[in-house]
Design brief:
heterodimer; A: Rossmann fold; 2 domains; 10 helices; 28% strand; globular; B: mainly alpha; elongated
Chain lengths: 279, 282
């Protein structure tokens, strides 16, 4: 039985910018073939972490291994195994979608088919349009297409669906499921918690330069955070009660009259997340 | 534990060259889709040649050829505009273009791909060469057809043109890559680069007759490549009767070759030291 080393290993990662500690000791692994979501508020350190892994930034201390290579010394052959979708940029876009993808495909040893990638991101009708003429969401889809054109082993997606309409997001999710089934390892940052829940196997939550939580999506925050909440109003006062047996609790509640605005809430990932980052 | 698939060598020298040619094609297409770059670097010398040729069309103070015919304004200005074109297509265009690519995220995106910096440079220099050739052809054609400028028939003159042009474009392109580090942002690039290029044109014998400048200014201009480039171009297109009017009474082609070669080396060092895909931690 062969044990595959993690695609990404991060140990005690620190990053200071002119005395400001952006990362204060982050540890995580991403298994080969896994989809891992890095969540957290703006400025928490998500992009700093991902850019260190991509080789764009040097770390202050700690160890990092990406596909067995230290990103600070990653050469072209290493980059040929990665796909990077950065946060959106303002390039000139003086090439058409097909020209751009064909050109970038040439950089890689074993690229995907250009037309298949154009179809996968739903830009068939825009294939011959100049990128600068596209809408923000369409340009973002070109970014995603450029990230996967090289058939990467490891794909970085930094807020990939910003500016997508709901249909484009669903299409993007389908694409990611397909990449996962092909064995691509994916590191995703997003502000859409439903997206993280939908796509990722595990998630880490970064707040204030630290990883405050890590685990499979359905265990994030621990069992206590998932206990259903019963909320009701009586005599103008809002009451809340966390209970594992909400049905029994509500039945008991109604013995003293019908409560106003009765709700039974199962905390969503978003609720748990907000609780975690607020600490 | 380290059972991760080892990284194979996939970016071979052959691929680097192939990607370089792919970049030339890509850069060339992109260049002609940007209206302002086409005007300020490609058509500018053409417009200036037209203006000077028309403005001084009845002037006869540009000297006489061996047969005693006056040299026309168009004939006099053609070599200067060819030299200016090389400077604009090479230095100005690349310096502004790369500074822009640095700040708009183009270089950051390329830095995340297995594209080699060498391929990127091949693309930039190749584009400067192709646009430079087209520009020179357009200038010569305009001078010949619209203003009746006599074009050399001597093969040796064209050989001189070929090496001055090739050395000039390459030197200017590489200097452009080096100078792209100077502007702090893509937005300020035009404001930083154009004055440098404009001053060089005024002191290097492009718009004003070089020998009419004060000696100290001639000496200053002689430190920079454009003066030599213009001189080399004059040796090709002006009648030999005008050689005596040059500084030192000679076209001094060895001097042209040496000056351009020195600037080529300076440019290579500058580009090597200053060029980065991205400024880490910026």
């Amino acid at each position: 039985m062969t044990t595959t080393a993690p695609a990404v290993e991060v140990r005690d990662l620190h990053k200071n910018y002119r005395g400001v500690e952006a990362l204060r000791g982050v540890d995580f692994d991403i298994a080969s073939g896994e989809t891992f979501a890095l969540l957290g508020p703006n400025g928490a350190g998500k992009s700093t972490t991902i850019e260190i892994l991509e080789g764009y930034r040097d770390r202050t201390s700690g160890t990092v291994s990406v596909l067995g290579v230290d990103p600070e010394h990653g050469g072209l052959d290493w980059k040929a195994r990665l796909g990077i979708v950065l946060q959106s940029s303002g390039e000139q876009g003086a090439a058409t979608v097909r020209e751009q993808l064909t050109h970038f495909a040439g950089f890689y040893p074993n690229p995907r088919d250009v037309d298949e990638v154009i179809a996968a991101v739903g830009l068939e009708e825009k294939a011959s349009s100049l990128i600068r003429k596209l809408s923000g969401g369409q340009r973002r889809r070109v970014d995603v297409a450029l990230g996967i054109i090289g058939r990467p082993e490891l794909l970085f997606l930094d807020e990939p669906t910003t500016g997508f309409d709901p249909e484009a997001r669903r299409q993007f999710w389908t694409l990611i499921e397909q990449l996962k089934s092909e064995g691509t390892t994916i590191l995703l940052t997003t502000h859409y918690l439903d997206e993280a829940a939908q796509l990722s196997d595990r998630a880490g939550i970064v707040a204030d330069g630290r990883l405050v939580e890590i685990g499979p999506i359905d265990t994030i925050g621990g069992a206590a955070a998932r206990v259903p909440l019963v909320r009701w109003t009586r005599d103008g006062v809002v009451h809340e009660e966390r209970t594992e047996r909400p049905g029994e609790f509500v039945a008991h509640l109604t013995t003293s009259g019908e409560p106003e605005r009765l709700e039974v809430i199962r905390p969503s990932l978003e609720d748990i997340y907000l609780e975690l980052v607020a600490k | 534990m380290t059972a991760t698939i080892p990284t194979r060598t996939v970016v071979t020298p052959a691929r680097i060259v192939r990607n370089g040619f792919s970049r030339i094609r890509y850069e060339f297409l992109a260049y002609f889709r940007q209206g302002d770059a086409v005007f300020f670097t490609f058509l500018f010398p053409v417009v200036m040649l037209t203006i000077f040729s028309v403005a001084f069309s009845s002037s006869n103070f540009f000297g006489k050829d061996a047969a005693g015919h006056s040299v026309s304004a168009a004939a006099y200005y053609l070599p200067g505009m060819l030299a200016a074109g090389v400077l604009l297509s090479g230095l100005q265009n690349l310096a502004i273009d790369i500074a822009g690519e640095k700040s708009d995220g183009t270089l950051k995106r390329l830095a995340g791909t297995p594209l080699s910096v060498t391929s990127y440079f091949i693309g930039k220099i190749g584009r400067a060469l192709i646009t430079g050739v087209l520009q020179a052809a357009l200038l010569i054609l305009l001078a010949r057809v619209a203003f009746g400028v006599p074009i050399p028939t001597d093969g040796a003159k064209w050989l001189t043109f070929a090496w001055v042009f090739l050395l000039g474009v390459t030197t200017c392109a590489i200097l452009g890559i080096g100078l792209s580090a100077l502007p702090r942002s893509g937005k300020s690039a035009t404001a930083v680069i154009i004055p440098i290029v404009l001053v060089l044109q005024f002191i290097s014998g492009v718009y004003l007759a070089f020998t009419n400048l004060p000696t100290w200014l001639q000496n200053v201009a002689s430190l920079f490549p454009l003066k030599w480039l213009a001189q080399g171009m004059r040796s090709v297109f002006l009648p030999s009767t005008l050689e005596a009017a040059e500084a030192g009474g000679s076209w001094n082609l060895p001097g042209v070759a040496i000056a351009l070669a020195i600037w080529l080396v300076v440019g290579l060092i500058l580009a090597r030291v200053t060029f980065r895909w991205i400024r880490k931690d910026s």
